[in-house]
Predict the structure.
Amino acid sequence: MKTITQLFKSLSDPTRIRIIWILQFGGELCVCDLMAVLELPQSTVSRHLAYLRNAGLVDDQRKGVWMYYRLPEHVNDIIAEILAVVRLTGKDSEQAAMDQHRLKAYLREKRAGTC
Amino acid sequence: MKTITQLFKSLSDPTRIRIIWILQFGGELCVCDLMAVLELPQSTVSRHLAYLRNAGLVDDQRKGVWMYYRLPEHVNDIIAEILAVVRLTGKDSEQAAMDQHRLKAYLREKRAGTC
DNA sequence: TCACTGTATCCGCATAAGCAAATATTGCAA
DNA sequence: TTGCAATATTTGCTTATGCGGATACAGTGA
């Protein structure tokens, strides 16, 4: 019961929905990538990621100093369904399109080796 | 964007999840039916129903003094998917089973003509 | 019209959640 | 080990949300 409401609560914030849209589009990204796309301070992004991690909606993996986040690959039916719904909502979202555009531009200019 | 987060926010409360489970099981019910099953005061139940109505997750219909609530029949893909997810979560929920049991007992004793 | 019942909304309060700066932690390299 | 960069967590503040009693509104019947 608490798990389910926690799951929905973690999706009831626009920033967290945006993070999932961005990860669905961009695959694996580190915190500073997300900071650039979301245009939000580090502590804010990190806290939202912790929220999503606790709900089982993202996986994290440390690579040196960088923490990379991505959507989980092996999930139960409920989370899979929910991620499908979120993807559906992103299809005709202006915000999702803007974030995808900003991510593409950011990745194009990003130099190798930097975060 | 706001619509989506509002949708998830309306599902981030245990009482509202319970209401949807109860309606999935019991069909069309009025506010006092739900008060009996949820064991919550009228103002609380009504407010949660308003939340769900605004999110498009329940339909209401007045019949005399009574307001009947049920799940919407014709919904878009997103709401249909979300209701399916909620149903899925109810399958192995002890709370859902308890509420179903209480609803059955309540309907058995309820006299015709009373709310 | 008036009284009554069922439901919706308002109000004040308590709790929860978001924000961003500050601080702590982690891992790498010198 | 020391210093630095990336990230996580803490802190203090502000805002949002839930609660239930009180009140307002709507429909029915006398």
Notes: Residues 30-32, 42-43, 45-47, 49-50, 62, 64-67, 115 of chain B lie near DNA strand C (CB under 10 Å from a C1').
